[in-house]
Amino acid sequence: MIEQLSEAERVDALEGLPEWDHDEARDAITRSFAFADFSEAFGFMARVALLAEKADHHPEWSNVYNRVEILLTTHDAGGLSERDIDMAQAIDALVDTP
User: Fold this and answer.
1) What is the pTM of this model?
2) DSSP 8-state code for residue 34
3) Taking CA atoms, which of 24, 33, 73, 79 is between 20 and 30 Å from 10?
4) Which range is the signal sequence, renumbered to this chain (predicted)?
């Protein structure tokens, strides 16, 4: 069973993810990404998809041209879990790597 983060754990985790916003209504985290064009955005999504498959933890997301919106929450836990934090960190590493 995957455990939902406590309020204190959530606060600590979000301090380490400054680019992500907490969606209180869904107990989720969200981030928007902008790329030079559709090809870059789609390539990013493909890399995230590989991470998601490996982790067996899949984002809710949308793409319009060069923008990608990602929402992470753990449905089985009823909200934010360590799996979401780990996935957000892995996604951040993709965009922070030259």
Assistant:
1) 0.93
2) E
3) 33
4) none
Judging by beta carbons within 10 Å of its beta carbon (0-12, 13-18, 19+), is residue 96 exposed, middle or buried? exposed
CATH of domain 7-93: 3.30.1360.20
d(CA 52, CA 70): 12
Summarised one tens digit per residue, pLDDT across range 25-72 is: 999 999 999 999 999 999 999 999 999 999 999 999 999 999 999 999
Beta-ladder partners of 71: 30, 60
Percent of the chain topping pLDDT 70: 98
**Is residue 14 pLDDT above 90, yes or no?**
yes
Q: How far apart are CA 6 and CA 11, in angstroms?
A: 9
Can you read off the two tokens belonging to residue 12?
């600590």
The domains of the chain are located at: 7-93
Within a 13 Å sphere around the CA of 15, how many CA atoms are in the beta-carbon half?
A: 6
Q: What angle do CA 67, 37, 95 make, to 5 degrees?
A: 65
